[in-house]
Amino acid sequence: MNEIDRLSPHSLDQIKQLMGLKKYPQAYQVIIVETAKTSYSRRKWFTAATGGNQATGYVSAFIKTYTQLSKLLNNEKCLTFTDHELQLASDQIAKTVLTQIINQDGLLPSFEEIMIMDFGTAIKTLKLTPIQWAGTPLAPLSGFKDPKPKLTHDWLIVFQASYHAVLWV
Fold first, then answer.
1. How many structural domains is the chain composed of?
2. Which of 132, 155, 121 is nearest to 68 (CA)?
3. Would you say the C-alpha torsion 5, 11, 16, 19 has a positive or negative sign?
4. What pLDDT, in 10s, does the model give residues 14-68?
5. Is the previous residue joined to 25 through a cis bond, with omega within 30 degrees of 0?
6. pLDDT tens, position by position, 76-107
7. Strand partners, 107
8. Which domain holds residue 153?
9. Is residue 81 in a domain?
10. Cross-strand pairs, 6
11. Is 2 inside any structural domain?
12. Residue 99 and residue 59: Cα distance in Å, rounded?
């Protein structure tokens, strides 16, 4: 498959402008359109991130439900995130990913690099443990190497939070 590794100068300018306006979903859409026929894994992440950042759709509901339930199942007292806190985290992930693309003159990070940025930013911004990151259930299926729940207790949290998040969405 022929991957598009660098965005056109026009697309990069659009992303800079949209980022300055804090219109992260629209900036993601620019990338989705340009990579429409290639870069399946990256395009899929940007598509999911668009819904997540707009707080609409299945992905957004799954992220919120999984994150809150994983904290509850881990016996943590602060288990509810406000919509505002989740939006701030989503915006920070967008800033991290889009800033890298801008700083690299439109060079798109690999899917794994995107996942690393998503993972690192989410756990830092929301003060999560690695298994509480909503990407944990899908990470092994997508080829992302971390996080890997090691203890039976960790796997139970991932399974239960995923199960309920899917049912409640």
1. 1
2. 132
3. negative
4. 999 999 999 999 999 999 998 877 767 788 889 989 988 998 888 888 888 888 8
5. no
6. 665 577 889 999 999 999 999 999 999 999 99
7. 6
8. 9-168
9. yes
10. 107
11. no
12. 23
Residue 86, C-beta contacts closer than 8 angstroms, at least 6 positions apart = 55, 63, 64, 67, 126
d(CA 38, CA 42): 9
Per residue in 10-34, is it b (16+ CB within 10 Å) or e — as a string?
Answer: ebbebbeebbeeeebbbbbbbbbeb
Task: For residue 1, tell me if it sits in a domain.
Answer: no
Rounded distance between C-alpha atoms, residue 113 and residue 54, angstroms: 22
Cβ–Cβ under 8 Å, residues 28 and 59: no
Residues 6+ apart with CB under 8 A from 119: 130, 133, 135, 144, 146, 147
What is the Cα–Cα distance from 91 to 49, expressed in whole angstroms?
10
Confirm whether 149 is domain-assigned.
yes
What length does the chain have? 169
The predicted model scores a pTM of 0.84
Reference 40, options 108, 118, 116, 133; nearest CA is 108
Helix 40-54 vs helix 111-126: crossing angle, to nearest 10: 30
